[in-house]
Amino acid sequence: AIVYIYSTIPGGLLVMLRLFAFIWFTYAIYVTLRKYRQSRGFYKKFWFFVGTWILTIPILVFVNSMIDVWFRAKIVNLISILSTFVCQLVLIAMYNPKYCCGTNGSFPFHYNPLTEQIDEKC
């Protein structure tokens, strides 16, 4: 009897997909940081919070192997919903220039990349 979605083959594929998404996301942030050094603070925070959200399900699957069967669904749903909510709140704060990322100059949309290319040519 299947009690837990992640104990099935499709559930395992979902976990593998999340792990692949984290690796791809980390690589994309790395490439972006190399190209746009001015926004390093923003992208490091972005990587930390979104990366944590992406890894929530694989971590939960590992932890839930140690939890009793009748609590698994409640814990998985609670933590996945809470992590999504917290990640959304952080992204709202990060994309608002009035909050933490806008005042320290790491907000990525405050400059035009074309001016950076023009400055490099001069």
UniProtKB/TrEMBL annotation:
Transmembrane domains' residue ranges: 12-33, 45-63, 75-95
Record-linked InterPro entries: GPR180/TMEM145 (IPR047831), GPR180/TMEM145_TM (IPR019336)
GO-annotated biological processes: G protein-coupled receptor signaling pathway; response to pheromone
Positions of the GPR180/TMEM145 transmembrane domain: 3-90
Keywords: Membrane, Transmembrane, Transmembrane helix
Cross-referenced Pfam families: GPR180-TMEM145_TM
ATP-binding among keywords: no
Protein name: GPR180/TMEM145 transmembrane domain-containing protein
